[in-house]
Amino acid sequence: IQKYITAAHGVNMKAMFYDLVYGAWENADAKNLKWGTASENSQDKIAHGTNGEGEQNPMSKLSKSKVEQIRNMVANGNSQISMCSIFNVSAMTISRIVRKESWK
Questions:
Q1: Tens digits of per-residue pLDDT, 28-40?
Q2: Torsion angle defined by CA atoms of residues 37, 41, 46 and 52, in that order, rounded to the nearest 10 degrees
Q3: Residue by residue, what is the 3-state secondary structure of the chain?
Q4: Which residue, 55, 16, 7, 23, is CA-closest to 38?
Q5: Is residue 23 within 8 Å of 45, Cβ to Cβ?
């Protein structure tokens, strides 16, 4: 893909990354590629919904609805420890969900 960007822009910018304009690798032609910094690439992934967070992460054990259920159950007096066995995740995961450090 880098050769397509180099061809499209005429310069190989080593400190930059190739970035998909529309967020789909299936459309990785020169018109859909641009040079961008790592930060711009991360922002584009969030905008395109391709950042792999939450339910989009193939390793995720939880869905957004389960996260909401965990927060509601803890808010209604259930212990965080009891949530671990119900949802098959670690105490740290439950704690981070409840404190909104993950699944924001």
A1: 666 666 667 777 7
A2: -130
A3: CHHHHHHHHCCCCCCCEEEECCCCHHHCCHHHEEEECHHHHHHHHHHHCCCCCHHHCCCCCCCHHHHHHHHHHHHCCCCHHHHHHHHCCCHHHHHHHHCCCCCC
A4: 16
A5: yes
Beta-carbon-side half-sphere exposure of residue 67 (alpha carbons within 13 Å): 18
pLDDT of residue 98: 97
- Flag residues of the chain having pLDDT under 70: 1-35, 49-53
Which residues, including other chains, have CB under 8 Å from residue 47's CB and lie 6 or more apart?
A: 23
The residue count for the chain: 104
d(CA 59, CA 64): 14
Residue among 9, 37, 39, 33 at smallest CA distance from 21: 33
Q: Residues 60, 53: contact at Cβ < 8 Å? A: no
